[in-house]
Amino acid sequence: MVSELINANPVVYEKKERRDRGGRAVLDEYAAEPIDQLEIFDILLNGDIKDPEHPYSLEELKVITEDAVDVDDQRSYVRVTFTPTVEHCSMATVIGLCLRVKLMRSLPSRYKVDIRVAPGSHATEAAVNKQLNDKERVAAALENPNLVDMVDECLAPSYA
Amino acid sequence: MGGTPTIQYVIHIESYVSSSSSEAQQAASVDAIAVLLKNDLLSLETLVREMEMYLTTTDNNIRSRGILLLGELLMRLMSKPLDDTAISSLIEFFTERLADWKALHGALVGCLALLRRKTGTGMINRSQAKAVAESYLKTLQVQSLGQQDRKLCLQILECLLDRYRDALFALGDDLVYGICEAIDGEKDPQCLMLIFHIVELLAQLFPEASGPLENFAGDLFEILECYFPIHLTHPKSDDVDMKRGELSSALMLAFASTPLYEPSVIPLLLDKLSSSLPSAKVESLKYLSYCTLKYGGDRMEKYTKSLWSALKDALFTCPQSTLSEDSDPIDGLGFHESEIMTQALELLQVLVRQHNDSFLSLILGDGDISTFLNSFSQFDDFNSLSTQYKQRLHAVGHVLSVCIKASGSSCNKVFESFFPRLVDALRLSVENSHGIVHSALDANFNFGALYLCVELLAACRQLVVSSDEVASAHDLARDSWCQILCSFCTSLCNVFFCLIQASCVESSWNAYVYAAVKGLEILATFPGSFISVSKLMYENILLTLTSIIESDFNKKFLWKAALKALVEISLFVNKYHEDEKAASFNSIVKQKIVSLISSDDLNMPQSLKLEAIFDIGLTGKSFMHSVVSELEKTISANLSEILVHGDRRLAGLTPGLLECYSNKVLPWFHGNGGADEVSLSFAINIFTKMENNSSLSLEAKGKELLGATMAAMKQAMTGCSVESQEKVLQKAIDLMETSSFFLSNDLILGTDLFNKKTQLGQTSEGLSCRDEWIASLFASVVIALRPQTHIPNIRLLLQLLAMTLLEGHIPSAHALGSLVNKLPLNISEDCSLEELIDTLFKNVMWRNISIGKEGNDGGAVAMSNPRLNSLNSHAVIGLAWIGKGLLMRGHEKLKDVTITFLSCLVSNEDQGNFLPFNDQMKDPTEHKVLCLRKSAADAFHILMSDSDACLNRNYHAIVRPLYKQRFFNIMMPMFLSAIVKCVSSTSRCFLYQAFAHLVSETPLVAVVGDAKKVLPVLMDCFLILSKDISHKEIIYSVLIVLSGILTDKNGQEAIIENAPMVIRRLIELTSYPYVMVIRETAIQCLGAMSELAHARIYPMRTQVLQAITKALDDPKRVVRLEAVKCRLAWASIASRSIHF
């Protein structure tokens, strides 16, 4: 485990008020509701993915925001851009892996998921991006029991 | 005899003293000895002698137990008379024992028991009490004891102070000193309660100033002051708040117990008042009010200045009353009073009353207030006012109100010094005569002055109203403030009028409008013996307000405020019996408002009209009566207009009136009495209207109107007494006899005209419009009848209803159901309920079926296809309602009904082929039969579900407890066996539908009880019914039952047994295409199933995950979200690894 925190004192932001979808009244039983930005954002934050280092959720640390989600339901494509709290954050890959796992579990299998570090927000941006979007490496990572434990820990629902 | 109790009590004593026996045993021993003593089986003297050894031994433990036993016994013998010798030797003993600190507890208990004895049963005398007190003061170190003992000590002290004052008085300084010592440093809330009370009692013991208390007042107060304000550091229980409140008021009593504390208390409170802690402020203000009253004016005189400045601080600058966020439109400035404000104003009131002139001059001479008032002219426009300014305005208004309310003279002073300024600011003048438009009316009309003016008026009014006696009111009338007010009254009124006229829709005007309307309301509600408003002015006010109601309905705020003001005025007029004003009110407001209903003015929305009328009506019974009569008149006028001329416009308006009548007005009469006459006259009226016209045709709007009329009729009938119901019923029957179907000889001669008609293949075109009205109104009357109401000619009545029912008139079915539900078992000598029901069955069901000989049984008939074919489909619905009536009262004839339905469901057993249920069937008869069987299945829904239209408690139905559970228990085995026997898939489908209706309306408890039997059938329901879109509601309700079973422990067992099947069905439902909630609920159920025993569900894991993965791509978002949760739940049941 990490002996020293990488970012010991992160800035914590207030959770933003959620956009309201306006009630549950379903007018048309057969109208399709395509997967949109807000839904992805909700998926990512509903379980309150926690920061690997701190008891704060990624939303509170502004690691991901609603605007950082790109989704195209017709082309089955989603891209999430996240911003690590500090440039040299070695947790970036873990966070990215968590996001990927969460989306893989929650989206239909037709989706292609792309996880990226926000440009300029990380020292080894290219490496991280490559690592996160390499199928083989992700699969390999998920074979590693320690990593899986860590990911599950992050994704465990918080009862706070 | 003597020996037995002796041995017993010795054993008990030993058991109590022994340290090895348990607490319960010890308590039992004390009780046993106490009983012996009470019943004189043992004398106290013998006991004490026997116990001598325990009471005097040198072993501390045994001695303390022994003494405690004696003390406990005395506690239990409080009401047993004891002679003086016994008392004196006992008290001597205990007094002496107070010095024995190792065995103190028993001594304390004993002392307390003896001290608390009542006169008549042997009390201790004065010298003994004094001896106790002396010993107490000499030997006890109260604060060094444990909590229990401290409490006992303080209780002894309290008891002494309370009951043996004479004895204690002589102790003087010693006593006070001793008490100081005993209470110093206490922290336990219970003990503190006692301490505060002791201090209070002490002050009563030495009331005069130059007593022993004087020397110690400072010390005592020093001990007490640290407790203020009460704050519990270790709140344990839930009732902390209550305890805090009690402690706080006990401390307040202690503070105020003697004026000797005044030099210390008031500075302390003033000091705490300036603290920033809101609770401390509130407490200080509360204490100050109380202490001020207790200490008296003379002592408080010197503090007035500092008190006023502290109050000003609290009122003007401290955490203010907050601006209310909820935009309740009816409010002036929109402030909520804070607790501080309320308490401060109360203190202010106490001070003004106590010091009258001197304090008032402080306020009136206050620089801040006058500067504030002088600054009025700078702040004109309300919208530019800052919140701070508004708060100040609010506070000043309240301060002045309090001053005015204090007394007539203070009111004079306030008026003399402030009113002229306000008048100036408002630019009023005495001469300003009626009719001249006020020059100041523009956007920057001075709001501050207006607000204060209204506040002052309101306070004056309260002053007058609160001084009840006529004499004092007359005195007030001669006061100068009154003169001033009278002279400005007219111009004030004019200002208010102008403001209202100038008001517009925008909300920026609301504050002005509120003030103006409020002002008018106050002027109009000054009590009459105290005329500051002339009759003319009063009527003007009423006219203005009424005209607002009539014409300004689009200015919502103004309209609401005006209505509220009128309601207040009306309440006032009723309360004070002001004849003259009442007369004006009646002639101006009541008539106008009431006539709004009948007016043809279409500009004003009907809902507003009705609101106004109803609100005004609420203020008094007489008003409501005139409202109701007008409403009734209008309704009946409209009805005749509609019925005769077919007026479409009225047909659109009248349902609203009827709704108001049945939903608002009638319930009011139910609550306030008088419902009977009102309802009766309404019902009779309607029937008379119907009698008077012989032809009727209504188009589209007719249905709505008829519905509203029926609802009103039912509502009216529920409120009628038995006698009135009989009258209405007679009227209804008379009307029925004028209907065309009655006149056709069919009914009278008993010919089967109707049958012929149907047999000839003619489709009945239903009832004519007039007949439909008559039948519906008649049915409404019958539905709401009370069980006690006598029904004349019941056979004819049933026949009539059966006829209209067969014409497709559903309310008639409701009426039939209600009738069989409520009729007494023996209606008359020659007619029993059973017989009637038989006839009814014959009429409804097999009227057109040639039954042959067995038809006379009137019982259930097994249906075969050809028979079904000739059955009227309305008959099935009618039979269902009749069945419901029987079911609810628990009548056994129900069996016939249900067997009929069941046989209907399985009737084509011989054919066995599957007929798709659709419209493309070649044979129309086949189609009709299927329709009939479908309605037989739906009949179970009617049987089980609660209906708003009839057969509920509101309509006096007879309801047997738990009837649904009973019915379910009877029907379930029948269904199960029928399903097993059934070979035709069509029949099976109908059976499942009927069973689904049955199960989904049964209380869950009953279903869960039989979950093991029910569950497989429910699963088959899903399988079979999910093929057809038309069954989606049934599927949903069954799914709800399933989810209910899943939440129950017994139910879960049944589900585990059938887990593979349940999961398979649920998986199918997760892709049910027609209804989203079904998919959502199915996924939720699957999610819940992941909690069940893993060994059973693990094999299905892959299946579920595959299905859920598909559901992740559901078109609906809610379903997807549920799928995510469900997937997580199932993925994690076996291992922590992620399963893709």
Automatic annotation (TrEMBL), chain A:
MIP18 family-like domain segment(s): 48-111
Alphabetized SUPFAM superfamilies for the sequence: Fe-S cluster assembly (FSCA) domain-like
Keyword Cell inner membrane belongs to the record: no
Keywords: Chromosome partition
Pfam families: FeS_assembly_P
A single GO BP: protein maturation
Family indicated by similarity: Belongs to the MIP18 family.
PANTHER family, per the entry: CYTOSOLIC IRON-SULFUR ASSEMBLY COMPONENT 2B (PTHR12377:SF0), CYTOSOLIC IRON-SULFUR ASSEMBLY COMPONENT 2B-RELATED (PTHR12377)
Designated name of the protein: MIP18 family-like domain-containing protein
Organism (species): Solanum pinnatisectum (tansyleaf nightshade)
Lineage, broadest ranks: Eukaryota, Viridiplantae, Streptophyta, Embryophyta, Tracheophyta
From TrEMBL, chain B:
Subcellular location per the Swiss-Prot or TrEMBL entry: Nucleus
SUPFAM superfamilies hit by this protein: ARM repeat
Domain MMS19 N-terminal residues, every copy: 48-316
One Gene Ontology biological process: DNA repair
Top-level taxon of the source organism: Eukaryota
GO cellular component: cytosolic [4Fe-4S] assembly targeting complex; nucleus
UniProt entry tagged with the keyword Nucleus: yes
Pfam families, alphabetized: MMS19_C, MMS19_N
InterPro entries: ARM-like, ARM-type_fold, MMS19, MMS19_C, MMS19_N
Keywords associated with the record: DNA damage, DNA repair, Nucleus, Repeat
Occurrences of domain MMS19 C-terminal (ranges): 691-1089
Function noted in UniProt: Key component of the cytosolic iron-sulfur protein assembly (CIA) complex, a multiprotein complex that mediates the incorporation of iron-sulfur cluster into apoproteins specifically involved in DNA metabolism and genomic integrity. In the CIA complex, MMS19 acts as an adapter between early-acting CIA components and a subset of cellular target iron-sulfur proteins.
Family as reported in the entry's similarity comment: Belongs to the MET18/MMS19 family.
Protein's UniProt name: MMS19 nucleotide excision repair protein
